[in-house]
Amino acid sequence: MRTVYDFSVKMPDGTEKALKDYEGQPLIIVNTASKCGFTPQFKGLQELYEQYKEQGLVILGFPCAQFHNQEFENIAETTAFCQMNYGVTFPMFAKIDVNGSDADPLFNYLTEQKKGVLSSRIKWNFTKFLIDRNGQVTQRYAPTTDPKKIEADLLKLL
């Protein structure tokens, strides 16, 4: 059986990062955008991370410009924006596509495991996936879901 730990992703500097490095830790995986109406969710995600990182939580942010090009072109601008405006310290990765023929394999896997209301494709920025300590996708949350509303489900995994 596949898990999220079977995938590798690109870091902002282009190097590969094996998600196996996070094995045994609950994860929140989210596609992000710096110029979106939901961008303030970075604050709530960072708060969850700070509150539960000692218990193993890791949040993985994946910038994406597929929805009205709401992400900076340069990944360095993205990471600087997230750190300066929202104090983001959780891992951010290279910009990716989450839908279509160029979709990152991790997001293809996530959407196969947990479909949205009408389809499996990602509908917008800040779609969030909760992953248990075994690397299984347990929940999918809509872009409109405030990160604080994930907390009850997260506590069951800690």
UniProtKB/TrEMBL annotation:
Transmembrane segments: none annotated. This is Glutathione peroxidase. Keywords: Oxidoreductase, Peroxidase. It comes from the Bacteria. The keyword Protein transport does not apply. The keyword Oxidoreductase applies. Belongs to the glutathione peroxidase family. Gene3D superfamilies: Glutaredoxin. It holds the Pfam family GSHPx. It comes from Neobacillus kokaensis. GO terms for molecular function: peroxidase activity.
